[in-house]
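The authors assume throughout that readers already know how a fold can be written as discrete tokens. What matters is that the chain and its backbone geometry are given together, residue for residue. A single example would do more here than another paragraph of explanation. For illustration, here is how one protein appears when written out as sequence plus structure tokens.
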Amino acid sequence: MAIQTVLPDPTHKIADDGQENTSSGAAGPGFKTVTLISELPRLINTSNSGISFRALNRYQKWKVNIRYNDLIKSEFEAVYLYLLQRQADQLAFFVDLPQYSQTVSANSFPNTSAYEAGVTTFARASSGAGQFTGIAKGALFHVTDPTDLVHKKAYKVVSVSSTQIQFTPPLQRKIDPTSNNPVVATPTISLIFDEPRVRVIAPTNEITYTLNSSGLYSFSVNLEEALG
């Protein structure tokens, strides 16, 4: 078994030793509400003639604010103790967002072309790999690249046509499924739509909860994307 790297939820259960155990581990609670925020700081200056000049001040990052229904002790401890450990160890983790899940087939890139960092579109193939069959705008996805384990960024599809996919934010790192890849020739690089997730940390110094007279726990947590 592997150490749990995903915030415990009904699908990702956690054992007492901190390892992922989908059969007999403690299930984390489902979300009552999830707020997904795209933060992209900008600088805007206006000249004396009224012309505005705009520039990006920093990189884009996602913020995920999760609110739970009132929890019984076992549900609460599954997620709260996990967050305390991650806070103490300063470790990032993943949070799955199943409400954005889509079933997309032919979701690996063909080995014909690479994409440089900074692009905002992927081409769709007419057959075989790279068709991205079933994709729809609004999908959240991440990249699995065996030659670049640092690529943890999450992206969102903003438009879809028969020939291309447009997404935001711009691609963070180069994707190279061709034979010219310096690590492995023609690696299988895929976009993951069916289990969309964001790599996050709990950025605040405090993680608090409330226990009411009925023995139920009130709890919410604000997370932000962390790629390192």
In short: The chain has two domains: 33-98+198-225, 102-194. The two ends are 24 Å apart (CA to CA).
